[in-house]
Each structure stands twice: as structure tokens, then as C-alpha cells.
Write a structure and sequence with these properties.
By secondary structure, the protein is an alpha+beta fold. Strand 7 and strand 8 form a beta hairpin. The longest helix is centred in the C-terminal third of the chain and has 16 residues, at 463-478. It is globular, with a radius of gyration of 25 Å.
Length: 636
Amino acid sequence: MFAYQVHSTAYIKSSYLFHLVYYLLKMRFVVFFLLLIFIVGCFSDLKVSIDQTGAYNITVNGKLWLRSSRTALYADNRWYSTENGSLTLAGITEDEGTDPKLGAWNETILTYNLVRNETTTSVTARIRQYPIQFALTFHLATGEQTLGGQLTLDQDEIRTVFPSFLIEKTSADDHRGYFTFAGAMTGEAHKHAGLWRIPSSVIQGGMESGPVVVFDLASKGEGDALVISPFSHFMATSLTQRNRTLAGSSDLEYGVMGSMKSIPPNYEQSLIVFYSHDGVNVAVREWGEVMQKAFDRTNEHRLNDITINTLGYYTDNGGYYYYNTESGVNYEQTIIDAAHLIKLPFQYIQLDSWWYYKGAGDGVKEWRARPDVFPDGLAALHRRLPNTPFAAHNRYWAIDNVYKQEYAFALDPANSKALPYGNDTFWDQFFVEAQNWGLVLYEQDWLNVQTETFWPTRNDINIGEQWLKSMGEAADKVGINIQYCMSLPRHILQAIEIPRVTHARASDDYAVNLKDSSKPQWNIGISSMLADAIGLAPFKDVLWSTSVQPGSPYGANAKEDLPDRAILISTLSTGPVGPGDSINYTNVQRIMRCCRSDGVILKPDRPLITINELIADWALDGGVMPGELYATQTTM
């Protein structure tokens, strides 16, 4: 493998790279920037075959890759399944047509009879192939009856199953691996990899699950690859794994989250299987392109987002002024001093969770500036900092929030949380008021907590999607962009329908690295793949430009071992670059290597992502990442 270190002022200065390589070699980290050459050719050989029993196989270049398992529905406190004959196949038909977004298709329609209380309902499963998109989609329509029952399943299970695939080694020469995005921070928290066979735990929990990539190991991840992903209702459906101990087998299954109380009539779920012969990274990127095309996603707002394209000052968990002010002054004066005394071309300032009122369970009670923080309010602060807009943080809603008296909120007393319930007037008023004090970016943090520990998002099939869409539509009316933080893969997928979501955190909080340098908070090469594919810029989080900064809220031993690395990774992420230094410890010269004199960041066309060969080694080594090796690309 040939690696080229790129010295280009198009996105980073050569002196910067010299210092970076010196520090990384010193720490035994090596980062290469690969010069990529793309060759287009060869038509896809992704095929699906369906037999008379309704069983289906997916082949790639004539080799069996995925073999079907069951189709099933959970209702009336029991399973109706093709495995035990309680869900019977009534007929198979064919159809074809053209989708205005994805082109020509042909499909096989499987009709099942669901008999409940002596009433028969038709359940329809469709397998559709788009030859020019290298994709298959699987659709299940649950029929004209509500599917309910007194007993629900766990949130990590599902209650409808279609499709399902055996996790298996199909032949002696089958050498395939997998990796999956899972957990918070755009799937960074619980991402994992391994061999595509029993007894691999491909999905460790349905709620936190995300797209699965299955790929050829013989080619070191440079050849055939499939991306398996939800294709609709992202907040209510999941990928899960069913382990059948007695049968000695495991299934990858897709369907509606098991904890949902009921499924309304004519509900339809969809999953996509996308193929590329050009390796893992191309597969994920091109799958994302198809997803964006299918949902009319526009990247206009990402491309024009001031908080992505220009330098900003950050006060979140890792910033010097996170729940911490300059000695002897309040927060208002601290922020004004940072804006005036740090000689950097900041184009906006981020205000984290320290400024608003909190209530039950430490949730947000009122999203308004506390007088002990900003005595004259945010509008007055904005006037004192002319031409400096704000990015502002918010968290999960407390059950005792002041807004529920006027607007419709879903309430969860057991968990002390609440959520605006599909009421667009709340979000409209919310963003209009915020725009008046200079808000240009709304950061919705704690998305995983609002979703995983709030009962209505786990048992109401519509509320999660309504919540995020209503927020996005109201933000769009006033031209405010949104950043997602602590987002599960399902939130990232949902953002494909919300173009005002322009970026998402792809890493743990920076404070983790400051407190313990052995925890590589900067390693965003996997999570960046998912964010960028969906059309979001990955965000590495705040950074320090000076290693040691006494008086920070992170203890006497807090340290950034490699400030150059932190700045470089942020710059090449394509997301925000947000210094959060103390006024007295900001290294202006070091930071200015990432941007022009007007604060415009010099970034590549695509974010840093982990190279295919390293992903293959990750799978081969039992899910242990052997290091960090990234590639990026820009056109000059």
C-alpha cells in the first residue's frame, strides 16, 4: 500500500503537518493521507431469488451472501410466524414500475394470511430490486387490523419481522466480516466488528442498533460489501439479533421496536440492502447517496452553515469555561472578555448547558437565561457582541417544565421527563424567540437519554418521528440549523428527512480525553462515515490549543497531550472547529493554521474516515481496532 502525505495549503499548512507528524510519531501514532484514484466500471451482480415457499436468498457475484429466516408478527401476546405455520403464505405475484427518485424496479409480492380471532387479514411483504441503484428494498405492510395486546416486548426486541437473514458462514471459502454503528455519538459509543458467522453478536441491542456493513475479508475490505439499513420510520424500527441456542443459529432481523404498544392499521416498514464492489467506504458513501436521493435530502444548509464553515468559540464539556468563569466575574463578562481578548476571528460563540433553568431530573425547566448568568438576558448580550451570533445547547425536557401549561407535552412521571407532543406551535414560538437573541444553531443534546429513558418514545410508534420533524420544520421557518448530540444511529437516520440538521457529534466529550489521555476521544473515523453518508458534518467537539491550562474545571492533571492533533482532526472532520481555551492560554498561531484570516476553515471535501484495510483488520482481530489510519479527499 502506498501512502502519500499531502502538503497543501488548500486545507492545511505544510508547517502544521510537520509538527503533527512529529508529535504523532512521538506518541507512536501514524496518520497517512491517501491519494485516492477512483475507477468506474463493472456492473453490479446483486441478485435476489425467491422460491415457492417464500424463502429468499441474496447472492453477490453468484455467491450466496444472505439466506432468509422467518417472517413473523407479535400480537395478542403471542407470535404468528412462518416457522410454526401460524402465518401462512397465500400467494406470490410479480410487479414492476418506476420510482421517480430511484428509477426502474421489479418486485416479488408475498401475501400472507394472518388469522386472529377467526378473522383473516392479508399481510403483504414485498422484495423490490432497483438494478441501476445496486439496491434491494424489503417492505412489510401489516394489514388492516391494529396489532396490539396487553403484553409488550422489550425495547431491544422487535414485534414485526421482515426481512430476516441467517448470520452464517455459507461455505468453506466464505471469508466475510462485518461492522456496525451502535450507541451514542453517531454510533461511536458501541461500534463493533467481527466475523460474519455464529456466534458473533452483530446486534447487541435493538434500541442502540444502526446500519450493518457486511464485507469480503479476502480483499481486505476493498471488494464486495453490503450495507443493511432501515429505510423508513427510523425512530420506531430496529435491527435486532435473535439467537436460537437449540438450533445453533442466529438471525439478523428487522422490524418495529418490541416495546411499542400497538401498530396501527396499514403500517409499513422498509429496509434497504445496498451493494458495492468497490469496498467498504464506497459502499457506505453510495448507500448514503441513495438514501439522500430517496428522501430528497438537500445539503444546502450544511454547505452554508456558519458554525461548520467558520471558527467558533466553545464552552461545552471540555471547554475551559464549562460551568467555570474567569476569576471574580460572572458568565456574561467572561463571554464578552473571551470574544474581545482572544485574538482569533471567531464568527459565533457556543453557549452550553450552564445558562438555562433546570428542573426535575436535571432536565430543562425553562430555556431562558438565568439572571445570575446573564443579568441583562441574551438579547442584551447579543447587542454587546454585535455581529456575533450564538449556537446554544439544550437537553431533555423536565416533567416540571413551564411550557406544558400552554402546549401539549407527553409526560413520563416515573422518569421525570417530558416531550413536546407533535405540537408545531410550541417549536414555532420557541425558535422565533431564540432568533431574536441571535441564535443560528440549536444543539439538541442528550438525544439518547430523551429516547431510551422516556417511556412514550418507546411505546408510541409515532412520537419520536413527530418530535424531531416538528423541531426541524419550525427551525427551517426561521433559518436556524440544528446539531444533534449524543445521537443514536436512529436519530442520524431520521435526520435524512430533516435538512436543517447539518451536523452531529461523532465523538465522546472532549473532557474525557483531558482527564485521561489513554481514552482517544478524537478517533472519529468510523462514526464520520455514517454522519457524512447521511449528509451531516461530523463534529469532534471542543479543543484546547495549549496542553496545560491551570484553573480549568477538569482537575489539576487535565492535559491535552497533542494540541496539533486535536486541531488537525477537527479541521479535517469537515465539521465545526471550536477552540475552548482559557483567555490566557489560547495559542493563536497554532489555531490560525486551520483557517483564513477571516475565520473560514480550510477543510477537505470529505471527512477523515478509517481506511478499508484497517476495518478488515478490526473484524479479523475480534473487534479490537489495531490503530487509527484515516483517509480524506479534496479537489484542488
